Amino acid sequence: GYACFTLCECSLLENTLMRLGVLGTVNNLPLKPQEVLVIINSVVRRAAMLDTDNDVPPPLQITGQTKHNLDIIQMLIKLSEYKYHNIKLPEGYNPPQLVVSSHYWRAWQILLVLAAFNPTTVGVLAWERHPTLRGFMEMVITNNYQFPLNSVNYQETMMLEKQLSAAEESDILIFEGHIARGVKITKQNSHMLNQLMVVKEGGPMRKPPQAVLDQTRLLAMELHLGHKLCKVRDPDFLLDIIKKQGTSRSMSWLSELVKNSENSFELL
After folding, report:
1. Half-sphere exposure of residue 37: CA atoms within 13 angstroms, side-chain side
2. Which one of 50, 69, 108, 114 is most buried, by most CB atoms within 10 A?
3. Where does residue 235 fall: left (phi above 0), alpha (psi -120 to 50 degrees), or beta otherwise?
């Protein structure tokens, strides 16, 4: 006989996300961490597209257990880490925390969706402890996908980014030199400079590539992430941004917000 299957749309559970993440950390499974990240990205976006005002239960719900939320944020970033095995590094050398750039930015985009659907749990943690995710949330709310953000000092931020980029380049070249076994590594022959980043948990937001900013804009439009974050009142992300940017800087995007949504005035 033939088996009969019924396909249905259903919410994505927090435990499902965590179990998927574990698959990317087990060495004896054929799935690579980055492949798991692609799967998580697909199921999160699919669940988010089910959203309606009357969804019970919500399509993407993260509980209020702080430890759990931190686990999800750390888990997704961990899946973007650059893995190297059977490589002997010099004694006393501490390698930097390296991530694959494209997967690192994808992890933050997944977390942006989770934050928009769970503003009082993931959103709060992002706002208070993770500058990169907070930066993406501000971009989505203000519909301004530029770096640096309007809420920070332009010159100071660009100077810091320049310093971090220089240190990152040096760290990656030194690391690649150690694993190249006798080959002198420079900017010209490096295979890692354009693929890896050096990250520090809780560190300042780095400058995203333009392609990432464009993808984030499309993601926010598709899933109405800006509207979700704007209507949150506890915590009040919108008011925090206005206070940080100042009234004069906020007026342009606030007027656009009102113009582009019938209900925006009620959100201000």
Report:
1. 26
2. 114
3. beta
What residues form DSSP beta bridges with 196?
100
pLDDT digits (tens, 9 = 90+) for 215-249: 999 999 999 998 889 888 878 888 888 888 887 77
pLDDT at residue 205, rounded to an integer = 93
- Interhelix angle 14-23/66-78, rounded to 10 degrees, is 40
CA dist., res. 153 & res. 78, Å (int): 30
Task: Work out whether the CA dihedral 109, 112, 114, 116 comes out positive or negative.
Answer: negative
Give the residue ranges of DSSP H helices in the chain: 14-23, 33-48, 66-78, 101-117, 124-129, 131-142, 154-179, 210-223, 225-230, 237-245, 247-260, 264-267
Average per-residue pLDDT in the chain?
84
Residue from 243, 233, 268 nearest 254 by CA: 268
Element (H, E) at 100: strand 98-100
pLDDT band at 164 (very low <50, low <70, confident <90, very high): very high
> Quick one: 135 exposed, middle or buried, by C-beta within 10 A (0-12, 13-18, 19+)?
buried
What's at 144, amino acid-wise?
N
| CA nearest to 117, candidates 46, 34, 33 | 46
When pLDDT is averaged across residues 80-97 and rounded to a whole number, the result is 88
C-alpha–C-alpha distance, residues 207 and 205, integer Å: 7
Q: Integer distance in angstroms from the first to the last C-alpha of the chain? A: 60
Give the phi and the psi of residue 45 in degrees, each rounded to 5. -65, -40
Per residue in 26-76, pLDDT (tens digit) is 777 778 888 899 999 998 998 888 765 555 556 666 665 545 555 788 889
